[in-house]
Each structure stands twice: as structure tokens, then as C-alpha cells.
Amino acid sequence: MRWIIALIAITVSLGLPARAPALADDHISFGIDWVAEAEYGGYYQALATGLYSQRGLAVTIRQGGPQVNQMQLMMAGRLDFNLGGGRAIEFAQQNLPFVAIAAIFQKDPAVLLAHPGMGNDSFAALKGKPIMIGGDTRAGWWRFLAAKFGYTDSQIRTYSFSLAPFLADKHAIQQGYLGSEPFAIEQAAGFKPVVLLLADTGYPGYANIVTTSTRLIAEKPDMVQRFINASIEGWYSYLNGDPTPAHKLIKADNPEMTDALLAYGRTVMQAHGIVKSGDALKLGIGAMTDARWEEYYRVTSSLGMYPKGIDYRRAYTLRFVDRGVGLNTSP
């Protein structure tokens, strides 16, 4: 046993991962909230380049999609970590034993899309016009836009997750994702759509939020920390270095993904500061702050997205972030 302790001490002094090679890796099941694409590149980079395995983690990334309820799978114990979206306050609202532990996206990459030359080139210009959105959006950031720009629910049209209705109607407006639909529209129709980024309106929500159970935190806090640290370093590697390792794994999981779309998704994340902006510039990727959560809850509760009086601080913990992990690798 003493030689194991000595070996760990040596690896720590050399800045290497402190793990005993004779011990089995911790197996982790991690759910992402959509199919594999550039928006999950940092996790795939950490897997492909060995950042997880160097910390004694055997990570399996499980894809999501419109027919997959990853939150239910985490609650059932089939996922250790899950990307819980921006609605982690529901954990506290419903007294659920889960919390947000890292916010990889400092800006929400949700967008509204419109055809060029139709006078729909600003959020304000969309007032009173039909907009295709999904059910989750209607209960979420739509209320923020409605309050800020005077939208009403009478404008809402059903979003079918297909570009066909949008491409067939020059007056059409629909929701989308910064790194996906704009590229697909340009490839399919040969024009660049108007892209209105939700984060540019002042919407205070995080995105790409990693969540886990309070039980896992209590029982294996070191494993949780290792997972978050490796994920953060994976994001720095993906955005600053060669993304090829991640892209190979993403295409293996999602054969419909192309090199061009992956490159586009990575580029727009960089250009718009989706990951590296705000508090993340000082505290590191994944940063969260009490002030930002307070602002998010203040705004959303004032709009009726959540009831007032929730102890929203129970929805997250700053224990595993804001440590400057990977900052020395950032250009």
C-alpha cells in the first residue's frame, strides 16, 4: 500500500493525474441533450484525447434527441451526469435531489431565423408575426422575448423540427440553434438566413449545463470533480487546438454529421463567445456565479416562468467550478 501512496505523491509533484494504475476506472454514463454535434465537442475531445481516462474515468457519452428523456434516465439512476438545460431551478421547485454543477455555455445559443429582405432583421420587427417554436421554448425563453418585445401567444405556430415549412415560405420565422439550422438553410437553399441570437437580447440564462444527483456528490465528490475538470480541459482543447479527435468520435456516434457542419458549429461558438465569455474569461470554462443565478431567477420569476419564493440556490452548487482549470491553456 505504501508504494501506491508514494507513487501518487510523485505524480502529484509532477503535475500528473493522481491515480493508482492498479485500481479500476470509475465508470460514468453521461447524457447529452441532443444527437452528437459540435455543441458537445469538448466532451468528445476529452474522451478522444484521453483526458477522462487520465483521471481514472471510463466515460460513456449517451446521445439524446426528441424521443429521449435524459432527465428521467438520470432520475432513474441510469445516467450519472446529464446536460439539464437552463431549467435547473425546477430541481429546487420540485424538491428533487439534483443540482447544476457547471455551465459550459455562458451564452444560450438559441436563435430565431428569418428570410433575408423581408423586414424581419431584428427581434423588435417580429412583433405580431407568426413564429414556429417548440413546447419547451414556449414555456421557457419565449416568455422573456414576449415581455421584452411585446410578443403574444397568438403568434406561436408549431415547430416540427423540419426546415421544409421555413424554406417553403419567405415570411416564415422559426426557432433554431446557432451552430445547426443557419448552416443547413444555406446548404439547402443557397442563402444566408437572418440569425437573431437569444443571448444578444440580454437573456441571462446559461446553457449546456451539467447536472448530477446530490447523492453522487455526497458519495463520490472526487469523481465528480475529476469529471468536471477533464470536461473543462476537453473544451479548451476542442476550441483552442485540433478538433479532429472529437469530430471523429462525433461522426461515429452520428454518421449524418459532416465535417463542414462540425467546422461551422465550432467556428460560430468561437465567434460569438458561447463558451469563452463573461465570467468564464476569469474563472474558467464552466463558470457559474451566485449573481448570475440570482439574476436569472429574478427575471424568470418576474415573467411567471417560475413561482416567486423558490430557494433557487438549491438548484446549483459552485463547488466544482470557478477554479481556473485550463485557463493557462487559453490563448
Give the low-pLDDT segments: 1-22
In CATH, the architecture of the largest domain is 3-Layer(aba) Sandwich
Kindly provide the radius of gyration, computed on alpha-carbon positions and rounded to a whole number of angstroms: 21 Å
The tally of domains stands at 2
Structural class: alpha/beta
Query: Mean pLDDT score, rounded?
Result: 92
Specify the biggest β-sheet: 5 strands, mixed
CATH superfamily of the largest domain: Periplasmic binding protein-like II
Spatial arrangement of strands, main beta sheet: 2-1-3-10-4
Order of helices and strands: HEHEHEHEEEHHEHEHEEHHHHHH
- Name the CATH class of the largest domain: Alpha Beta
Helix percentage: 25-40%
Shape: globular
- Beta-strand percentage range: 15-25%
Report the total helices. 14
- Please count the beta strands (DSSP E, at least 2 residues each): 10
Describe the structure.
The protein has 331 residues and is of the alpha/beta class. The protein folds into 2 domains: 19-106 and 205-329, D-Maltodextrin-Binding Protein, domain 2 (3-Layer(aba) Sandwich), CATH 3.40.190; 110-201, 3-Layer(aba) Sandwich (D-Maltodextrin-Binding Protein, domain 2). 38% of the residues lie in helices and 15% in strands. Strands 2-1-3-10-4 form a 5-stranded mixed β-sheet. The chain has a 3-stranded antiparallel β-sheet with strand order 8-5-9, with no helix packed on it. Helix 2 (41-48) crosses helix 10 and helix 2 (41-48) packs across helix 11 (244-253). It starts with a helix and ends in a 29-residue tail after the last helix.
